Amino acid sequence: MIRSFTAFTNEVDDTEAAVSEIQTQLDAFGPLGRSTVALVNAYPEFIESGAYEAIARALPFPVVGCTTLGAVDPATEILECLSFHILTSDDVYFQPGLTEPIPGEAEAPILEGYARAVFEAENAGIANANKPALILSYLPLLMNAGGDFLVQAIDKASGGVLNFGTTAVDDTTDYLNSRVLFNEGIYADRYAFVLVYGEVNPRFYVATIPPDRILANTGVVTAVSGNQIQAINNRPVSEFLMDLGLTKDENDVIVGMNSYPFIVDLGDGRPPVVRIIFAITPEGYAVCGGDIPVGATLSVGNIDKPSVLYATGEKLDELLADGAPGALISFSCIGRLYAMEFEPLKEAHLVRDKFAPTRTPFTLAYSGGEVCPLKTAGETNYANRFHNDTFIACAI
C-alpha cells in the first residue's frame, strides 16, 4: 500500500525558512515506509534562488520532478510555489532514474539510463526488476527531440511499461529555462523517472476537448517532416485552416492558432490525441507539439475556459465514481492554463474542490506536454501516448 502526502513552500528567498517549512510538514506526517520518493513541481524562481537545491539536499529520500508554470496541492492558493508529493510504502518500491544528456533524437542515453535504474533495483533486491508496474516520467523540453520520441524510446527500453508524466516548462516565452530535477541536480537535457514496483494498480484519466468544440471538417495528413505537418489533403496546412474560417492579421499570421489544436486520429483504434500548433512557417507548414504521421485523420478544435472546465470536471466525476484513490497525480497543459484568462487557478481549484470531501492527497502541475496511457473501451492493454492540450490524472 502507498501512503502519500503533500508539502509545499512559498519561501523563495529565505532558503533556511523554506527547508524548515518542508521539514515541519514532513515531521507532522509521521514515520515513513521502507521506500519513499518525492515528486517535485517547482516554479522556476525556486531554482534560481537556490531554495529547491537546499530542500532537496536536506530531504532523506530521492527527489524527482521538473519546473512548471504552476503547481497546486490541497493547501496552496497560489501557482508560484514549490510543491512536493511524497509517496511512501512498506511493500511498494520506488527506484529513481536519470539519463545522461540527450543530444537530439538519440535513443542510447534513454536505453542506458533505464538499464542503470533496473540494475540498481536488482541490487536493492527487487525481483523481476525489469518489469516495474509503472513509470513516472519527467521529460526535458528539447528543441531537437520531441515528446513522442522520448516516450517511444523509453517504451523500447521498458517493453511498454505503463508510463505517466509531464514535460518541463517555465514562465518564459521560449521556455528555455525549463529544467528536469533529480535530487540536487538541475538539468536542461536529461530525462528523469521513477520505476514503481509492487501492487500499484494505477487508473488513468484523460480529458481533452469536448466534442461540441471540435469543428466538423476533417482532413488527412499527406506530408510531414518530424513535428511539422506540411500538407493536409495535399494542400498547405494554412489553406486547410483558412477554409475552416480562421483569419490572418496584418502581419499575415493566423489569428489565435494556439487556441485551435489538432485532434488527431492515429488509426490505431484508440482515442485521438491532441497536438498544439506552435507556429505556421512561411511555406504554410504547421509546427506542432508532437509528431503526426502521414495518413492520420485530423480535425481542429477550439479551447476556451468553459470547455476546459467542462472536460476536466467531467473526467474528475468519472474518476470519483470509480472510487476515491489513495493518491492523485495530475498534470494539465499550459495551454489550458492560458485559457483560464484572468482566473489562472480556476481549473486547479476545480480539482481541489472535487477532492476536498475525499481528503485525497493530490498535486496538479502545468505541463509542456503530457504522458499518459490510452486504451479503447473493452481493451485490457494500454498504449503509452504523448499529448498536448490535455488534462491527465493517475489515480493510485
Beta strands, count: 25
- Our Rg estimate from Cα atoms comes to 20 Å
* Major β-sheet annotation: 8 strands, antiparallel
Overall geometry comes to globular
What does the average pLDDT come to? Answer: 90
- What percent of the residues sit in helical stretches (DSSP H or I)? 10-25%
> Uncertain segments of ≥5 residues (pLDDT<50)?
none
Intertermini distance: 9 Å
- Beta-strand content: 25-35%
SS element count, helices = 9
Secondary-structure content class? alpha+beta
Give a summary of the structure in a few sentences.
By secondary structure, the chain is an alpha+beta fold. The chain contains nine helices and 25 strands. It is 24% helix and 33% strand.
Secondary-structure map:
Blueprint: E1 2-9, H1 15-29, E2 35-42, H2 44-49, H3 51-58, E3 63-67, E4 71-72, E5 82-89, E6 93-98, H4 108-123, E7 134-139, H5 147-158, E8 163-167, E9 180-182, E10 185-187, E11 192-197, E12 203-207, E13 214-225, E14 228-232, E15 235-236, H6 237-243, E16 262-265, E17 273-275, E18 277-280, E19 286-288, E20 297-301, H7 305-321, E21 328-333, H8 334-339, H9 346-355, E22 362-367, E23 370-374, E24 383-387, E25 391-395
Parallel strand pairs: 2-3, 7-8, 21-22
Antiparallel strand pairs: 1-5, 2-5, 3-9, 4-22, 6-11, 7-11, 8-23, 9-10, 12-25, 13-14, 13-20, 14-15, 14-19, 16-17, 16-20, 18-19, 21-25, 23-24
